[in-house]
Amino acid sequence: MAKRNNSIQFKGFLNTEVMEITEKEKDSLKVYDLLEELKFYDGKDVTITIKEDLPVVPKG
Question: Which residues on neighbouring strands pair with residue 33, listed in sequence order?
Answer without folding.
Answer: 20
